[in-house]
Amino acid sequence: MKRAMSSIVPASFLMCVIFIGGFAPNAQAQPQKLGPFKFAAIQIQQIQSDDVKLPAEFQMSLYENVIEQVEKTKKFQHVYRDGEMSAAGVPDLVTLHCTVKGFKQGSAMARQVTTVAGKTTIEVHMQFTDKDGKSVLETDTKGQVRFFGENLRATYDFGKKVGGVVRANFTATSPVSK
Amino acid sequence: MPKNYRSVLFPFLLLVISQASSALARPPQQSPTSFKAVHVIGLQDAKHNAKGKITISKDTLEFTSGGARNDLPIASIQDALTGADSQRMIGGTVGFLTTFAPYESGRFLSLFRTKIDTLTISYRDSGGGLHGAIFTLPQGQAAVLKGQMVAQGAKTSMSAENEASQQTDGKKMKEKNQ
């Protein structure tokens, strides 16, 4: 009886550690802080995925979510889209380039049935450049959906993380009235 | 013998004439002009996951949801791509609450999924800014809608036939990997 108990206690402790470890925020959850940088406006370029085959809906959803989340931060007076002509005349402009480095399409059904399998992950390299094309900030970020939601939710998660990076590294030039 | 021949031929002729006249009277089968759709992301005045209707009129794509209406000039569409996906049969808040149902019945319900089509549109606004809009439609509807859009002047980087063959190739690859 005593021997059985002695083997159960460490096993249950180990399981607890694994379980809690799974939920604990990892190093990537904390956005890297290199700033603060000050720019009046930002232009967000279309998401590039030359090396990785990314479905069109993921590519567009990433782009729209990034714009939405960067607008929410209110760190810039104006958020310009890719190709917006009026951005050319803005002197204090930072440009965000995103390149997809990895994509693993999981299964929503596998996630909902098993909880542990079927994770969807998108790995993206982000680069902020100034008007001269000089790199201001570079970082890698992951968007993922582990438990709840359909696969496209990974793009929302990525957008939120981009918002976190912007909040941590940029300061508003003047109060944005929106 | 000729009398017999006439007695057989006359009803046959009558049948042919009646069939031909009914075929002429029947209007030609038309593809639907409005499509039930869910707006996932991208349109300015529509909420995320808003249910509504897409209508193709002369030169605009119209999405109406509740009281809100979004008009998109078809000439501004740079690319329209379809895809295939699936979603939980019981979704939304009720779907989420089923995860707490007893005896893991929520997981069992997750096995029941409906196949859906996705339609991804990228377009430019009057200022040149790139936008992306994603819709989900019932299975088989996205290709029809895309066909109508292309007929009205929308651009696409991939024909419907190529997309269909690519989707079947993708499915085969997925099955091979599993």
Folded structure, characterized:
Chain A has 178 residues and is of the alpha/beta class. Chain A has one domain (32-171): Rossmann fold (3-Layer(aba) Sandwich), CATH 3.40.50. Chain A has four helices and seven strands; from the N terminus they run αββαββαββαβ. Chain A has a five-stranded mixed beta sheet with strand order 3-2-4-5-6. In chain A, strands 1-7 form a two-stranded parallel sheet. In chain A, α2 packs parallel to α4 (153-169). Chain A starts with a helix and ends in a 7-residue tail after the last strand. Chain B has a single domain, classed as Roll (PH-domain like), CATH 2.30.29. Helix content of chain B is 37%, strand content 34%. Chain B has a seven-stranded antiparallel beta sheet with strand order 4-3-2-1-7-6-5. The longest helix of chain B is centred in the N-terminal third of the chain and has 24 residues, at 2-25.
Keywords summarizing the entry:
A: 178 residues, alpha/beta, Rossmann fold, five-stranded mixed sheet, two-stranded parallel ribbon, 4 helices, 7 strands, 36% helix, elongated, B: 178 residues, alpha+beta, PH-domain like, seven-stranded antiparallel sheet, 5 helices, 34% strand
Structural topology:
The complex is a heterodimer of chains A (about 180) and B (about 180).
Chain A: H1 2-23, E1 37-38, E2 41-44, H2 56-73, E3 78-80, E4 93-104, H3 108-114, E5 120-129, E6 135-145, H4 153-169, E7 170-171
Parallel strand pairs in A: 1-7, 2-3, 2-4
Antiparallel strand pairs in A: 4-5, 5-6
Helix pairs in contact in A: 2-4
Chain B: H1 2-25, E1 34-41, E2 50-56, E3 60-65, E4 68-73, E5 77-88, H2 92-97, H3 105-110, E6 113-124, E7 130-138, H4 141-151, H5 160-177
Antiparallel strand pairs in B: 1-2, 1-7, 2-3, 3-4, 5-6, 6-7
